[in-house]
Amino acid sequence: MRKKWIAVLAAAVVLMAGCSSKETDKKEVTEHKEKEVEVEENASPEELPYQFPLTGLGTDEESSDRAVAVVVNNHPKARPQSGLHKADIVHEVLAEGDVTRFVAIFQSEQPEKIGPVRSAREYFIDLASGFDSFFIAHGYSPEAKEMLERGVLDNINGMQYDGTLFKRADFRKAPHNSYITYKNIVKGAEKKGYGLDEAPSPAVFLSSEEAGQLDGTPAEELMVKYGSPSFDAIYEYDAENEKYHRFNGSEETVDLESKEPVLLDNILVVQMNHQVIDNAGLREIDMATGGKGYLFQKGKVNEIQWKNEAGRIVPYKDGVKAGFVPGKTWINIVPSISDVSFDSQQ
Q1: Angstrom distance (rounded) from CA 333 to CA 274
Q2: Which of 44, 149, 236, 340: CA 20 to 30 A from 167?
Q3: Which helix (H) or strand (E) holds 192?
Q4: Are the CB atoms for 107 and 63 separated by under 8 Å?
C-alpha cells in the first residue's frame, strides 16, 4: 500500500511545482565508554536480569549511562542521516514552515557518529528535559539560547565548538554538514564538567505476553502529513520481523554509513497546539496540556490520550497508562490528529 501514499505525495509535488520549501534560519545567532552495545532483541526482558530504561530490552548488565539528546537535521539535503537507527526514541516535530527536525534520544546504544546536527528550539529542549539529557545542537533560536545559557539542561553547541567537537563534512554544504562523534560528545561533557553516569528513569513497557496479545484496529501502513511532500512520513509494518520501516515518500530512512534501516516497535502520533509567533516562522508548541493521539504497535492502532509527565509524552488508553512494546519508539508531533491516516489493507 506504500505505493498509494507515494502517489498521494507525487500528486502534491505536482501541485506545489514552482514553489520551494526553503528552511529559514534568520534568527539563529555539534568516550563515555565508546562501545558497541549488543542489544538482546531476541530475548524477552524477563529472561535477562536488567532492562534498558528507554527500550525495555534485556541486558546482562545494569545500564548507568546518561541519555544524550541530539537535534538532527531532516532537510532532504541532509538525508540519509547518521546514527538515527541507534536512537532509543526519536521525536519528529516541526521547526519553521513545513520543515521537521528530530530530537533523538540515545541511551542503550552509542553510534560512532550522529548528524547532521541542527539548531535548537525551546520545545526541543523541553523534549530533551524529560530524560535529563545531555543536549547537543548546532545553533539556536534566541529563546532556546536564553534557556541553554540559563542552564536548563547540560549542553554543548556547535556555535562554540564548530571545527573542534563538531566537524563539517565535505560532501554536504552548510547548514546540512555538521556532525559530532560520540567520542566528542563525551569530550564535551568532560570539558564542561558534566556527568554522564546517571541513567534516566524507565518508561513503562509491556511484558512479552502482553505484547503478543495486543488488541487494536489493524493498521499496517500509516502516513503522517506535515504540509510538504518532502517531509510527510510513511510507516510500513513488516509482519515477519514485527517492526515498522520509515519512509519519506519512496526513500527509506536508513543510516548513511551502514545503510541499516531505522526499525521501530512503537509509533506514537500526538496532537499539540502549534502557534507561529513571528515573521521568521518560529513556533510555540503546547507540550503541557495533553490531548489526542494514536499508538501504533504490532500492526495495530489504538486511540490514546497523551499527558506530559515530568517532561515526557506518555500515552494513556481508557485512563490507564499504555505500555510500549520493548524496542525503539518514534514520536510524531502534529498540529492536528487529522494529519495522520492509516490503512490496514495489504
Answers
A1: 10
A2: 149
A3: helix 182-192
A4: yes
pLDDT, the chain, mean: 90
Q: By C-alpha distance, which of 83, 82, 123 is closest to 100?
A: 123
Listing DSSP states for 95-146 in one string gives -STT-EEEEEEESS---SEEB-B--B-HHHHHHHHTTTPEEEES-B-HHHHH
pLDDT band at 147 (very low <50, low <70, confident <90, very high): very high
The whole-angstrom separation of Cα 83 and Cα 133 is 17
> Does residue 67 surpass a pLDDT of 80?
yes
- As assigned by CATH, the class of the 45-192 domain is alpha beta
Fold identical between 2-14+203-343 and 45-192?
yes
Per-residue pLDDT, 6: 55
Q: What is the pTM of this model?
A: 0.89
Q: Report the percentage of the chain scoring pLDDT > 70.
A: 86
Q: Judge whether 189 and 32 are in contact, CB under 8 Å.
A: yes
d(CA 332, CA 52): 22
Please state the domain extents for the chain.
2-14+203-343, 45-192
Exposed/middle/buried for 209, CB within 10 Å: 0-12, 13-18, 19+?
exposed
Instruction: Identify the helix (H) or strand (E) that includes residue 302.
Output: strand 300-309
pLDDT number for residue 4: 57
| 109: Cα separation from own chain's centroid | 14
Render pLDDT for 2-45 as a digit per residue (tens, 0 to 9).
655 555 554 544 444 444 444 444 444 433 444 444 444 455 55
What is residue 209's three-state secondary structure?
helix
> Treating both helix axes as pointing N-terminal to C-terminal, what angle do 142-149 and 122-129 enclose, rounded to 10 degrees?
40
Q: How is domain 2-14+203-343 classified at the architecture level of CATH? A: 3-Layer(bba) Sandwich (3.50)
Residue pLDDT, tens place only, 81-115: 999 999 999 999 999 989 999 999 999 999 999 99
* Whole-angstrom distance, CA of residue 137 vs CA of residue 119: 5
Task: Tell me the sheet residues that pair with 342.
Answer: 222
Cα-trace Rg, the chain: 19
